[in-house]
Amino acid sequence: MENLKRMILFAKVIETNSFSEAARRMNIGKSAVSMQITKLEEELGVRLLHRSTRKLVLTEAGEQYYYSCAKILEEAKLASEQIKNYKAEVSGKLKLTSPVGFGSRVITPIMSEFMARYPELEVDLLLSDENKNLAENELDLAIRIAELDDSSLIAKPLSKIPIILCASPEYIDKHGQPDSVTALNEHQWVLFSHTPTKIPYELNGEKYLIQPKGRIRVNNEQARLQLVLDGLGLSPMHIYDARESLQTGKLVRISEHIPIPSTPVTALYQSRKYVPKKISVFIDFLIDKLAEEDWI
User: Is the pLDDT of residue 70 over 60?
Assistant: First the structure.
């Protein structure tokens, strides 16, 4: 590595025809430049330069060596320019993961607009309700719909998604509408995979303990929606899952008088420094689109 630095320094000296100017451009002292060139000559076992007070003259060996060093310097400049262009351009492949419901109902409908905006970009979208490890799965970005534990990943808040407590009209006709928080404990629930057995809840300064019970538990949002539509119980659902059925009257909203906190939407990626443009533009795009949503 030291030899490579000396080669680049030697090329700078010849380009500028000056130890002083090369030192200025490389931000080092003039004496350090002279010393490094001397060390380079000692390593090579040949004289590269004839030095005088007025000018520098390449030896025959120095001339041949300079051409090689100049090529290395040019390649280094080209590599730097390519990286700068890579950072400025949106290209390559963006690999991201998202929960199935959010991915299919929110991300997928806006992807055609995003890809039309960035025609040099390819997208690999993995929909999964498992929290995929970014490094192990070679993922650039993960979208999470939940409160997050601390981790080494960079977390970028995107939005918040309302949660609506719903049931089918048939279920309400048969079992009645819960009219209080405590009444929820008397009803059947369609349980989700991570539904806790006890949920602390506070409303108007009063503290409650909701204890969901149900005969069926699922790990997929679409399956949960179908089971609620079929009248097997009530369930809290993200608005993007329930909205269409609420609009058509196939679901009834219970939570108007029993509000449920919204769920944060977060983008996770691996490094705060040198974030590829493909990641930053997708995050910005998704933030803008979520801000446009009229969830309720």
Answer: yes
